[in-house]
Amino acid sequence: MPLKACRDFCRRFGIGHRAGADLLRLLDSEAKHGSPRQRAAMEALRAEAARGTALADGMNQNSHFFPPLLRSMVKVGEATGRLERTLLKLADHYEQQVRLKNDFVRAITWPSIQLILGIGVISLLIWIMGNVTPSAGGEMMDLLGLGLRGSSGVLVFWAYIAGFFAIVLAAITAFQKNIGGVQNTIPLLYKIPVIGNAIQTITLSRFTWTLALALDAGLNPIAAIKLALDATDSDYYRSGAEDAENNIRAGGTLTDALQATSLFPDEFLTQVGVAEISGTDSETIDYVARDYDERAKAAMKTISGVATGVVWLGVAGAILFVIFRIVMSIAGVYNEALQGI
């Protein structure tokens, strides 16, 4: 279920539930929104609800569509009688995720278009070199020095580009799926200047948002921390769930439990500890979540700036390479012409 669909569903359903609307009528309305897949999922959910199945249980039967966080929070909301409040808070969480994603996409859209145009210009030049015959006959000079000409040369050039992006995509996928335990390198990733701290801030923002939601909905600290660690979508963070649980069962506070995981920076733990003195667990983490929400916005701008810079460098590098090769090719022709003088 896409982020925007999650946001809109939680908002509509939360408002409707708070107004006292009938559950089945709400689900009938939801079955009219979104993609065909979403409408089918809502129709199946409505059918389960008509049989007396709890909303969370109905979602679990379609777990490949409804995300884990939504299913978990709906279950907590139903169990505590605070479903509408939980859904509206969850809508705010998804709104933040949508906003961060949109900010990033907007920042890299224009540089990406320029990169595509640059690839198109080079492709056109390769095609011209293979299909345009000089007046003196023969082939055109290989201005790029790549040995690529004509339509076949363009296809080879595109294959190189596709191979590069395939490698990048494979690396990202391997990291997301933690293939070979690659996520254990996350502490090293956080040490990268500028971008490392930004990535860590966004991860902590997602963690604190989820933890605040879970505690506010009435989930016990052990289950809340486990859910929040899972929301980071990282096996590196999930590995701390057992240590946090053992600490709480031994009488530790929320801060103690998070410190026992050895996953969180001292600044974050200090902030949680200071806030914990003055309020309940839910109030504590809600305060920290709001602070990290603001930090995440700045962090996303940093990452967007870095990504934009990388794309710009790619475009500039391609342009400079083409200019350099053309100049060197022309200079070589003049040198050959002047050798006999």
Report on this model:
The chain has two domains: 93 residues, Receptor-associated Protein; 163 residues, no CATH class. 77% of the residues lie in helices and 0% in strands. The protein has 15 helices and no strands. Helix 6 runs antiparallel to helix 7 and helix 9 packs antiparallel against helix 15. The longest helix is centred in the last third of the chain and has 58 residues. It starts with a helix and ends with a helix. The mean pLDDT is 82.
Runs in which pLDDT lies below 50 for 5 or more consecutive residues are none
> Whole-number radius of gyration?
27 Å
The end-to-end distance, rounded to whole angstroms, is: 74 Å
The rough form would be described as elongated
Which characteristics define this entry?
341 residues, mainly alpha, Receptor-associated Protein, 2 domains, 15 helices, 77% helix, 0% strand, membrane, Type II secretion system protein F, transmembrane helix
Short description:
This protein has 341 residues and is an all-alpha fold. It has helices spanning 3-18, 23-30, 36-50, 55-60, 68-80, 83-131, 150-176, 186-189, 195-216, 221-231, 235-238, 241-249, 254-260, 266-277, 281-338.
Helices and strands, with pairings:
Layout: H1 3-18, H2 23-30, H3 36-50, H4 55-60, H5 68-80, H6 83-131, H7 150-176, H8 186-189, H9 195-216, H10 221-231, H11 235-238, H12 241-249, H13 254-260, H14 266-277, H15 281-338
